[in-house]
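Revision sheet: C-alpha coordinates.
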Amino acid sequence: MPTDLPNLLTLSRIAAIPVLVAVAAVGAPWADMAACVVFSAAAITDYFDGKIARDRGVTSSFGRMLDPIADKLLVGAALMLLVGLDRLSHAALYPAIVIMLREIMVSGLREYLAELRVGLPVTKLAKWKTGFQMGALGTLLAGDTGAGVIGLGFLPVSLIGEVGLWVAAALTLVTGWDYIQAGLRHAGEQDARPAVAEPPAGETTARP
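Predicted:
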Protein backbone atom coordinates (compact mmCIF):
# COMPACT_ATOMS: atom_id res chain seq x y z
CA MET A 1 0.00 0.00 0.00
CA PRO A 2 1.20 3.58 -0.66
CA THR A 3 0.74 4.33 3.05
CA ASP A 4 3.25 1.71 4.22
CA LEU A 5 6.34 3.19 5.87
CA PRO A 6 8.75 2.12 3.07
CA ASN A 7 6.51 3.71 0.45
CA LEU A 8 6.15 6.86 2.54
CA LEU A 9 9.95 7.10 2.71
CA THR A 10 10.11 6.70 -1.06
CA LEU A 11 7.48 9.40 -1.52
CA SER A 12 9.47 11.65 0.82
CA ARG A 13 12.34 11.63 -1.69
CA ILE A 14 10.03 13.09 -4.30
CA ALA A 15 8.57 15.58 -1.82
CA ALA A 16 12.10 16.72 -0.92
CA ILE A 17 12.83 17.86 -4.49
CA PRO A 18 10.90 21.19 -4.43
CA VAL A 19 12.38 21.91 -0.98
CA LEU A 20 15.86 21.22 -2.35
CA VAL A 21 15.29 23.50 -5.34
CA ALA A 22 13.90 26.33 -3.21
CA VAL A 23 16.73 26.19 -0.68
CA ALA A 24 19.50 25.91 -3.28
CA ALA A 25 18.08 28.88 -5.20
CA VAL A 26 18.70 31.19 -2.21
CA GLY A 27 22.41 31.19 -2.95
CA ALA A 28 23.60 31.96 0.60
CA PRO A 29 26.25 29.85 2.38
CA TRP A 30 23.75 28.61 4.97
CA ALA A 31 21.34 27.69 2.15
CA ASP A 32 24.06 25.68 0.39
CA MET A 33 24.59 23.69 3.57
CA ALA A 34 20.84 23.30 4.02
CA ALA A 35 20.55 21.99 0.45
CA CYS A 36 23.21 19.41 1.27
CA VAL A 37 21.29 18.33 4.37
CA VAL A 38 17.97 18.06 2.50
CA PHE A 39 19.53 16.06 -0.30
CA SER A 40 21.49 13.79 2.04
CA ALA A 41 18.44 13.08 4.20
CA ALA A 42 16.41 12.22 1.09
CA ALA A 43 19.21 10.01 -0.27
CA ILE A 44 19.48 8.08 3.00
CA THR A 45 15.82 7.08 2.77
CA ASP A 46 16.78 5.03 -0.30
CA TYR A 47 18.59 2.61 2.03
CA PHE A 48 15.99 2.52 4.76
CA ASP A 49 12.89 2.06 2.61
CA GLY A 50 14.32 -1.10 1.06
CA LYS A 51 15.65 -2.43 4.36
CA ILE A 52 12.38 -1.85 6.21
CA ALA A 53 10.37 -3.39 3.38
CA ARG A 54 12.49 -6.54 3.42
CA ASP A 55 12.58 -6.81 7.22
CA ARG A 56 8.82 -6.40 7.54
CA GLY A 57 7.94 -8.35 4.42
CA VAL A 58 5.86 -5.50 3.03
CA THR A 59 7.31 -5.27 -0.47
CA SER A 60 4.77 -4.12 -3.03
CA SER A 61 4.45 -3.49 -6.75
CA PHE A 62 3.85 0.18 -5.95
CA GLY A 63 7.15 0.40 -4.09
CA ARG A 64 9.09 -1.45 -6.78
CA MET A 65 7.69 0.92 -9.38
CA LEU A 66 8.20 4.14 -7.43
CA ASP A 67 11.61 3.51 -5.85
CA PRO A 68 13.76 3.84 -9.01
CA ILE A 69 11.62 6.74 -10.22
CA ALA A 70 12.19 8.66 -6.97
CA ASP A 71 15.93 8.02 -7.16
CA LYS A 72 16.20 9.29 -10.72
CA LEU A 73 14.08 12.37 -10.03
CA LEU A 74 16.24 13.28 -7.04
CA VAL A 75 19.53 12.74 -8.90
CA GLY A 76 18.28 14.57 -11.99
CA ALA A 77 17.11 17.55 -9.96
CA ALA A 78 20.43 17.79 -8.12
CA LEU A 79 22.47 17.61 -11.32
CA MET A 80 20.35 20.25 -13.05
CA LEU A 81 20.61 22.51 -10.02
CA LEU A 82 24.40 22.21 -9.95
CA VAL A 83 24.66 22.98 -13.66
CA GLY A 84 22.04 25.73 -13.64
CA LEU A 85 23.58 27.48 -10.63
CA ASP A 86 27.08 27.18 -12.15
CA ARG A 87 28.29 25.00 -9.29
CA LEU A 88 30.17 22.57 -11.54
CA SER A 89 33.43 23.16 -13.37
CA HIS A 90 33.50 22.54 -17.11
CA ALA A 91 35.39 19.27 -16.55
CA ALA A 92 32.71 18.02 -14.13
CA LEU A 93 30.02 18.46 -16.78
CA TYR A 94 31.21 15.28 -18.51
CA PRO A 95 30.58 12.85 -15.63
CA ALA A 96 27.27 14.64 -15.01
CA ILE A 97 26.24 13.96 -18.62
CA VAL A 98 27.30 10.32 -18.35
CA ILE A 99 25.25 9.85 -15.18
CA MET A 100 22.14 11.48 -16.65
CA LEU A 101 22.32 9.43 -19.85
CA ARG A 102 22.80 6.24 -17.91
CA GLU A 103 19.71 6.95 -15.79
CA ILE A 104 17.64 7.47 -18.94
CA MET A 105 19.03 4.32 -20.54
CA VAL A 106 18.33 2.14 -17.51
CA SER A 107 14.78 3.51 -17.31
CA GLY A 108 14.23 2.49 -20.94
CA LEU A 109 15.68 -0.97 -20.32
CA ARG A 110 13.48 -1.50 -17.27
CA GLU A 111 10.40 -0.50 -19.26
CA TYR A 112 11.28 -2.90 -22.10
CA LEU A 113 12.12 -5.80 -19.80
CA ALA A 114 8.96 -5.21 -17.76
CA GLU A 115 6.96 -6.03 -20.90
CA LEU A 116 8.80 -9.36 -20.98
CA ARG A 117 8.16 -9.85 -17.26
CA VAL A 118 11.91 -9.80 -16.64
CA GLY A 119 13.38 -7.93 -13.69
CA LEU A 120 16.61 -5.95 -13.80
CA PRO A 121 18.35 -6.77 -10.51
CA VAL A 122 20.52 -4.19 -8.76
CA THR A 123 24.10 -5.44 -8.56
CA LYS A 124 26.48 -4.82 -5.68
CA LEU A 125 28.60 -2.60 -7.94
CA ALA A 126 25.51 -0.56 -8.78
CA LYS A 127 24.99 0.02 -5.06
CA TRP A 128 28.56 1.32 -4.79
CA LYS A 129 27.83 3.59 -7.74
CA THR A 130 24.78 4.95 -5.97
CA GLY A 131 26.78 5.56 -2.80
CA PHE A 132 29.51 7.53 -4.59
CA GLN A 133 26.92 9.37 -6.65
CA MET A 134 24.80 10.48 -3.72
CA GLY A 135 27.85 11.40 -1.64
CA ALA A 136 29.33 13.43 -4.48
CA LEU A 137 26.10 15.30 -5.20
CA GLY A 138 25.55 16.13 -1.54
CA THR A 139 29.14 17.40 -1.26
CA LEU A 140 28.78 19.52 -4.40
CA LEU A 141 25.51 21.03 -3.17
CA ALA A 142 27.30 22.17 0.00
CA GLY A 143 30.35 23.37 -1.90
CA ASP A 144 33.16 25.40 -0.40
CA THR A 145 30.69 28.04 0.81
CA GLY A 146 28.49 25.58 2.67
CA ALA A 147 31.52 23.87 4.20
CA GLY A 148 32.58 27.20 5.68
CA VAL A 149 29.32 27.34 7.66
CA ILE A 150 30.32 24.27 9.68
CA GLY A 151 33.98 25.19 9.99
CA LEU A 152 35.29 23.05 7.13
CA GLY A 153 36.14 25.93 4.82
CA PHE A 154 39.79 24.85 4.76
CA LEU A 155 38.86 21.70 2.80
CA PRO A 156 38.54 21.69 -1.01
CA VAL A 157 34.97 20.42 -0.72
CA SER A 158 33.94 21.20 -4.29
CA LEU A 159 37.01 19.42 -5.64
CA ILE A 160 36.30 16.40 -3.44
CA GLY A 161 32.74 16.34 -4.76
CA GLU A 162 33.89 16.49 -8.37
CA VAL A 163 36.35 13.64 -7.83
CA GLY A 164 33.52 11.59 -6.35
CA LEU A 165 31.37 12.46 -9.37
CA TRP A 166 34.08 11.12 -11.71
CA VAL A 167 34.28 7.90 -9.69
CA ALA A 168 30.48 7.57 -9.85
CA ALA A 169 30.56 8.16 -13.62
CA ALA A 170 33.20 5.45 -14.07
CA LEU A 171 31.09 2.98 -12.08
CA THR A 172 28.08 4.16 -14.08
CA LEU A 173 29.74 3.10 -17.33
CA VAL A 174 30.59 -0.35 -15.95
CA THR A 175 27.15 -1.03 -14.48
CA GLY A 176 25.43 0.52 -17.50
CA TRP A 177 27.28 -1.92 -19.77
CA ASP A 178 26.14 -4.81 -17.57
CA TYR A 179 22.54 -3.67 -17.92
CA ILE A 180 22.88 -3.25 -21.70
CA GLN A 181 24.21 -6.80 -21.99
CA ALA A 182 21.28 -8.09 -19.96
CA GLY A 183 18.84 -6.21 -22.19
CA LEU A 184 20.49 -7.43 -25.39
CA ARG A 185 20.49 -11.01 -24.12
CA HIS A 186 16.78 -10.99 -23.39
CA ALA A 187 16.05 -9.19 -26.67
CA GLY A 188 18.02 -11.84 -28.53
CA GLU A 189 16.10 -14.61 -26.78
CA GLN A 190 12.82 -13.00 -27.82
CA ASP A 191 13.94 -12.66 -31.46
CA ALA A 192 15.08 -16.29 -31.51
CA ARG A 193 11.66 -17.58 -30.50
CA PRO A 194 9.50 -18.77 -33.42
CA ALA A 195 6.62 -16.46 -34.18
CA VAL A 196 3.19 -17.83 -33.34
CA ALA A 197 0.87 -17.55 -36.33
CA GLU A 198 -2.35 -15.73 -35.56
CA PRO A 199 -5.52 -17.31 -37.00
CA PRO A 200 -7.32 -15.23 -39.65
CA ALA A 201 -10.05 -12.93 -38.43
CA GLY A 202 -13.27 -14.76 -37.77
CA GLU A 203 -11.60 -18.15 -37.48
CA THR A 204 -10.80 -20.06 -34.34
CA THR A 205 -8.34 -22.83 -33.77
CA ALA A 206 -9.87 -26.26 -33.63
CA ARG A 207 -9.93 -28.00 -30.29
CA PRO A 208 -8.99 -31.68 -30.04
